[in-house]
Amino acid sequence: MTTPSQTVGPYLAIGLPWADGPTVVPEGTPGAVWIRGTVTDGAGNPIPDAMIETWQADPQGRFDHPDDPRGRVPGFRGFGRCPTEPDGSYAILTLVPGAIPGESGSMQAPHIDVSVFARGLLNRVVTRIYFPDHAEANAADPVLNAVPAERRGTLIAERTADGYRFDVRLQGAAETVFFDV
């Protein structure tokens, strides 16, 4: 007997968020920026019960992980988690990451890995946030270059007064590029 499939659902708000989940670094950290955006469905409607998770390197390109031999930055955990508000918005306070090593000695442009959980999804979807301030690194990034040129804009955040804006569109026109991981 097979078990029926279940979508990621509204239970996200019950136990997954935590009070400091949206603050990858403490408020007041020098250089901290807000990454804000809205998660929408294919019709452009906000999704009020989604969850955004982020994982990233620190400004020197190091990860807060025991497998990264380059060391850690105190106070930087590299992981954020934020449920969306009723209007579909989210906000993560972090530092812009540094470039990280890629395959065959290449470097990947500064980016933040993003997982999106939402109702109607059988599994999370995964994307990346790249930064417009790193145009040269973005142009050389092997992952970004694997995306068709006309869709790369869905992966590049927009600069705002206090950080960046990165909207996630789950379907339809201007759908965010998602990666098969």
UniProtKB/TrEMBL annotation:
<dbReference type="InterPro" id="IPR015889">
    <property type="entry name" value="Intradiol_dOase_core"/>
</dbReference>
<keyword id="KW-0560">Oxidoreductase</keyword>
<dbReference type="InterPro" id="IPR012786">
    <property type="entry name" value="Protocat_dOase_a"/>
</dbReference>
<dbReference type="InterPro" id="IPR000627">
    <property type="entry name" value="Intradiol_dOase_C"/>
</dbReference>
<dbReference type="GO" id="GO:0018578">
    <property type="term" value="F:protocatechuate 3,4-dioxygenase activity"/>
</dbReference>
<comment type="similarity">
    <text>Belongs to the intradiol ring-cleavage dioxygenase family.</text>
</comment>
<feature type="domain" description="Intradiol ring-cleavage dioxygenases">
    <location>
        <begin position="17"/>
        <end position="172"/>
    </location>
</feature>
<keyword id="KW-0223">Dioxygenase</keyword>
<dbReference type="InterPro" id="IPR050770">
    <property type="entry name" value="Intradiol_RC_Dioxygenase"/>
</dbReference>
<dbReference type="Pfam" id="PF00775">
    <property type="entry name" value="Dioxygenase_C"/>
</dbReference>
<protein>
    <submittedName>
        <fullName>Protocatechuate 3,4-dioxygenase alpha subunit</fullName>
        <ecNumber>1.13.11.3</ecNumber>
    </submittedName>
</protein>
